Structures are given as structure tokens and as C-alpha cells.
Amino acid sequence: MTEPAPMPWTDPTGSDKHTWHRFSAFYRRHFATLGSVGRVLEFGVLNGASIRWLRTLFPDAEIVGIDILPVQPEWPTGPEIRYVQADQGDRPGLAAALAGLGGGFDLVIEDGSHIPQHQAACLAAAFPMLRPGGLYVLEDLHTSLPWHPLSLRHCAPGTPTSLHLLLAIEHGLATGQALRPAEAGRLAAPGLFTAAEVALLGARIAAVDIFRRATLPLRCWSCGSDRFDHVALRCGCGVSLSLAEPDSMTVVLRAGAPGCTAANG
Fold this sequence. Notes:
The protein is of the alpha/beta class. It has 2 domains: 16-213 and 248-255, 3-Layer(aba) Sandwich (Rossmann fold); 216-246, no CATH class. It has helices at residues 16-19, 24-31, 49-57, 91-99, 116-126, 149-154, 162-175, 181-186, 195-204; strands at 39-43, 62-67, 81-85, 105-110, 130-138, 205-212, 228-229, 234-235, 249-255. The strands form 2 sheets. The chain has a 7-stranded mixed β-sheet, with helices on both faces. A hairpin with a 4-residue loop joins strand 7 and strand 8 (234-235). Helix 4 runs parallel beside helix 5. The chain is globular.
């Protein structure tokens, strides 16, 4: 089988996906399977670096950025770039914003607030908008670990999050077992997923691949330097390089055709 042509992975945009999290090689492997990419959606625009990065990767695609802020002066613009203002914490408003976009996305990236409830809201609402074979990327999944500060702040102890759900689906795919109704109910929680949303995701997610950085970042997220103390595992500015604590965890999900389950692929 012929190997796909290499994709451009230089990073002139300064996106922390590359410099801090080092997701690039992981994404390259998955994105290369998409073929022609026509529509891309990203939650969380921040300073626009990710939109510039996506434009570099997919120069012919329509790219949609969703953010709680109105369009900012520094955000990149172009005929195939558009922005939608929506709050991840407002589920009805988010649903209305997404409904106006239509479906058929090749790639969705969720890189917004990283609050577990917001990650769940976007996953439940936007994953069904993927074409079969499309990819959903949920970044900073480590914030849903029960001991992460965002999870401690926003979730009661024992609350199932996107992480719990995706680990259950991955386990089912690995063992050839679909989620049972009782399991779907156990993975549901008010403000995160309904049992119906759990069942839908369990039926539509055809593959789960989780990455967590185990190496040093290329540059510090805080000061931009690479002058690291390799013994203390800290940047010269004092920032931890995050090898022990939860950090830099992302998941890539592949959409199956409607009706696909963990048991039948």
C-alpha cells in the first residue's frame, strides 16, 4: 500500500498544540487518513494560532471557529474562514449555533474552556455532525481526571465525565462489547451526558486513540523559552514541565456510520 504524502508539520503559528503539548506526530498519523478535507470545525479560538495552523494543514477547506468572544482583530481571516459566537456552557445556544452550520464535517477539534461539562456538551452536540470516517479531537482531556482542579471545581465526587465515557467505549471496542443500557445509565450525569447521548456516542464512535505527552515540551507555554532544568524538570522561569501531574492529554475519535456499534465496528 502506498504511504500517504507527508503533511506539513512545521509550526510557524506558535500553536501550543505543537510547542507545549507535542500533539503533532499523533495528529499527523490520524489526519493523514482523512483524504480530502473540505470542512473543519474548532471550538476555542483564543489568539487565532490554531486557525492559522489548520489553514496551513488544510488550505482548501472551510474552517469554522467557535468561541465565546466576538471576532477579535488578531484572528486570521479569509474567504474560507468563518467564526461563530457561542458559549459552551449554554447548551440550547450551542445547539442553535451548530444547527446553523449543517453537517458533513471531516474534522472537529474541541479546544475550548476545558471544563468537563463543556467538553461533554460539545462532544454530544458536535460528534454527530461528522461524516463517517471523520475525526473528533478532544484536547486537554486530562482536565476530566477526578483529581484535576477543573474537575474538582465543577464536578461532584464520582461524577462520570467524557474521560470515563471514552475509556468505557475504548474498552468495549478492544473487547468487542457494546455498551449495555445499564452501563449507559451509569455513565450519564446531569449537566454532562444523558443516557441517550451516551448510547448514541457508544453506537457512533468507531475508534478511540488517547495520547498523553511523556516527553519534554519544545518550549515553555509561559515564557516561550526552551532553557529547561533537566534535573528539576522545570523551565528556567519556574514552570513545571508537567511530567508527573495531569497535562497534555488528547483523544482522537473516529466516526462510524450510523448504527455502528463497538461490537460490530
